[in-house]
Amino acid sequence: MRKLGLIGGMSWIATAAYYEQINAAWQKERGAPSSAPMLIENLDFAGLAGLESDADWARAADCLTASAQRLETAGVGLLLIAANSMHRVYDAVAASVSIPVLHIADCVGRDMALAGVNKAAVVATHNVAFGSFYRRRLVGHGIDLLPPDPEVTAEIDKIVYEELVAGRVTRDAERALRTIITSKAQQGAEAIVLGATELERVVDVDANVLPIYSSTRIHAAHAVRWLLGAV
């Protein structure tokens, strides 16, 4: 049986969403009381938050590659990094193991391309919204992206790092996200990419002014397809 490996803890809120969504999708296919075969290494986000310098990111790469290698040794056949921002060190992680690592932005880009989306906006923290490591993956699937807005990303940073990773969900955050999404629609976006794994907690993915592509939900769905042998 195939086994999935999840590098989590960045934040644990996001990892919990992955765990729930992967198991729910697996059980839908296999029936109750089946659970998805996976191993999770829950890293301490306290040592991986607020990364800025190249040395900081090199340290993060070392931490995640060590985790990936431990999971590979434990017998998993596919790895997921359960955080959009940590895909900045994806290349180092993928090079450190002999098993595939499923890139979150590639999963989102493939789904958007299949749906015929041409232009989208990435709603994410500053690191992701401005990061070429993320944007070039989406563009590689033929998706034109609106330019990132520093004021919006600053607001998202505050919501994610001061509220959502601590388990706080507020009406103010929900209203802020609705305003941001409406603004992106007015700027010509055909769809929204939720590029922070926690944002699904304050955005109604299934009922909004634009189609919402939740990176967490899509990444998890692609992982389940692999578990089921569909890819």
TrEMBL record:
<protein>
    <submittedName>
        <fullName>Aspartate/glutamate racemase family protein</fullName>
    </submittedName>
</protein>
<dbReference type="InterPro" id="IPR015942">
    <property type="entry name" value="Asp/Glu/hydantoin_racemase"/>
</dbReference>
<dbReference type="InterPro" id="IPR004380">
    <property type="entry name" value="Asp_race"/>
</dbReference>
<comment type="similarity">
    <text>Belongs to the aspartate/glutamate racemases family.</text>
</comment>
<dbReference type="InterPro" id="IPR001920">
    <property type="entry name" value="Asp/Glu_race"/>
</dbReference>
<dbReference type="Pfam" id="PF01177">
    <property type="entry name" value="Asp_Glu_race"/>
</dbReference>
<keyword id="KW-0413">Isomerase</keyword>
